[in-house]
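Task: sequence design from structure.
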């Protein structure tokens, strides 16, 4: 039986770019482009109809931009991992996208091999930022670690950490190090389904939206 392909939805207001990305990804044996959209609203509609694993989302689009579409997908509890694609390198744009729930952020001039690898990475549950802009984000992440998050709940950080079981704390540390569900499964000798259950419990106890926020929270607590 052939391995299940990663289902990808491409959303960009320029048809030529959508077609180009689709053509490049079609060459990858493990990736299938299942749909395309021209704006953020179409991204929401197509994601609901097609249930993709990954959405490649342009940042600047009419009707509804990529960041807001990503935020609404996250608010719906939608399944696909979002990779934002942009020509912008501005720190604020990247941070807005990640705060909205994006799992990845890539520049549009990315090599097709790197794009395919990014799709695989986020489909596996990890996060990825274009190496060209990672370094410029470090000062921002340092300030975030030094200051309390505006959305943090009233409970003190140590109290939230104390809610985690020993196994959950170990998994949280692995999330902070960028481990995928499959890697955690192998390292702990438990099923991927059990890993997912633990992660759901971690998100609930820490009161964070997704694994990316959990990983950032763990790094801020020195668990990375």
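Answer:
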């Amino acid at each position: 039986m052939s391995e299940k392909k990663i289902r990808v939805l491409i959303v960009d207001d320029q048809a030529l770019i959508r077609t180009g990305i689709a053509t490049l990804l079609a060459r990858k044996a493990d990736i299938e482009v299942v749909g395309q959209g021209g704006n953020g609203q179409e991204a929401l509609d197509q994601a609901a109809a097609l249930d993709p694993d990954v959405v490649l989302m342009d940042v600047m689009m009419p009707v509804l931009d990529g960041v807001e579409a990503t935020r609404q997908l996250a608010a719906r509890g939608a399944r696909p991992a979002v990779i934002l694609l942009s020509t912008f390198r501005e720190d604020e744009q990247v941070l807005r996208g990640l705060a909205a729930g994006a799992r990845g952020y890539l520049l549009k001039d990315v090599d097709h091999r790197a794009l395919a690898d990014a799709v695989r990475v986020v489909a596996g549950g990890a996060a990825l930022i274009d190496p060209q802009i990672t370094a410029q984000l470090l000062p921002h992440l340092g300030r975030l670690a030094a200051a309390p998050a505006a959305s943090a709940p009233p409970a003190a950080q140590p109290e939230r950490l104390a809610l985690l079981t020993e196994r959950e704390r170990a998994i949280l540390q692995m999330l902070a190090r960028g481990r995928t569900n499959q890697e955690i499964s192998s390292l702990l000798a438990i099923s991927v389904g059990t890993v997912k259950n633990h992660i759901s419990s971690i998100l609930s106890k820490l009161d964070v939206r997704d694994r990316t926020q959990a990983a950032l929270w763990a790094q801020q607590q020195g668990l990375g």
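Confidence is low (pLDDT under 50) at residues 144-156.
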